[in-house]
Amino acid sequence: MPTRLTLRTELLAMREEDLTVRERLLQAGQLEGGYHPEMEAVHIRNAARMREILSQHGWPTRTLVGVDGEEAAWLVVMHAIGDPNLQRKSLALLENAAWAGEAPTWQFACLADRIAFFDGRPQRYGTQVDWDDEGYLSVCRLEDPARVNELRATVGLGPLERTGRDRQTPIDPESLRRHREKGEAWARKVGWRK
To answer: For residue 84, what are the domain limits?
Structure first.
């Protein structure tokens, strides 16, 4: 069984690999147009290890792995989009840790919204964005738009800001259609949707 320091170091290394590969692919212009296989491979590998960590330790709390180790665990889980079961299991563990003061409550909110987005449901806290029907990048559907800022405040998030549409060029309808078709096919393939 790894020591707390070893576990923290491992989580930080997982986060670093994720961010390094992401940045390299971004700089090469290879992150647009779908889930890059190299990025997906990092996420799959990290998700497999995170399942083991959760089984052995529960959520890697601040007490167990430090603030940066806990945040690294959250990032790994947030990026494990190809593993719906891991994200769902993590949500329950993270919620308990957050309300016990062992993780920030906003992390729970972000993961809850991400799961809702991939499930095809409205999100509660307004943390996830995608292209809307007009081709603008904007906040995804909300469960309760009138109360979203009140709900955000309960988890330490500031008010939902404007989307900045006035500074955006929308994607064309054909690109939007392809984006949605690919997203739906991928969501079905990995088990988000039936």
So the answer is: 4-190
